Amino acid sequence: MNFRKHLFSGIVLQGIGLSLFAQTDKPNIVVIMTDQQRADLCGREGFPMDITPFVDELAHQNAWFDKAYTVMPASTPARCSMFTGRFPTATHVRTNHNVRDINYAKDLVTVLKENHYKTALVGKNHAYLNSKDMDFWSEYSHWGKNKPVTEGERAISKFFKEAVGQYLEPSPIPLKDQQPTRIVDEAIEWIDSQKDNPFFVWVSFPEPHNPYQVCEPYYSMFAPDKIPAVKTSRKDILKKGEKYRILAELEDASCPDLERDLPRLRGNYMGMIRLIDDQIKRLVEELKEKGLFEKTIIVVLSDHGDYCGEYGLIRKGVGLSESLTRIPMVWAGYQIKKQPKAIDAHVSLADLFPTFCTAIGDSIPVGVQGRSLWPMLTGKEYPKEEFSSVVVQLGFGGEDVPLDDSLTFEQEGALGPNKVAHFDELNTWTQSGTSRMVRMGDWKLIMNSYGKGELYNLKKDPYEINNLFGNPKLIDKQSELLTKLLAWELRLQDPLPLPRHRYHFKRNPYNYHFTD
Question: Which residues, in sequence order, are CB contacts of 155 under 8 Å at separation 6+?
Answer without folding.
Answer: none
